Amino acid sequence: MPTWPLEEIQHLLEPTLAHMGYSIHALEQAGSGGRTLRITIDKPAGFISLDDCQRVSEVVGPLLDQADLIPGPYTLEVSSPGAERQLRDASDYERFLGRRVNVRYRSGSTEIALEGVLTGVDDAGITVLGRSKEPVRLGWAEIIAGRLVASLSP
After folding, report:
1. Fewest Cβ atoms nearer than 10 Å: which of 41, 83, 104, 143?
2. Does the pLDDT of residue 37 top 90, yes or no?
3. For the chain, how big is the Rg over CA atoms in Å?
4. Which residues make Cβ contacts (< 8 Å) with residue 80, sequence separation at least 6?
5. What is the pLDDT of residue 62?
């Protein structure tokens, strides 16, 4: 499977998507035989709808074809990060302050999962109010992964 120049593809698409009000959350070569370009989009406020995905697909497809960065036929998939999106960096944590999160972190040689409400974010790390109702302070270096927790309540 030939590897596509994902960094070049991202640089090509970012200005147009930014102009449309979106950002690239993730970009990957996937699928059987690696012939699918999967673009996960996001926007600063709210969540991505099916209409957003279709709109981006209609613009991105011709841009990719014109740039000819992907040799041969390929499938384009545009999607949202989902209700239980991964939290990748401080700006993601800041954006979802006050929301329910699941954070895996390392304490010594032990990996621990913590679910609760994200109550604080700063340069040193995050604070999560878990089931014990005691705030848990985690430094950025301790955090392995974080994601939103889907909730049916408002």
Report:
1. 83
2. yes
3. 18
4. 40, 41, 42, 47, 48, 49, 52, 53
5. 96
Last residue of a domain, one of 25, 57, 79: 79
Both structure tokens of 36: 């699918």
Domain extent for 120: 86-148
Largest CA distance in the chain: 56
Same domain, 44 and 103: no
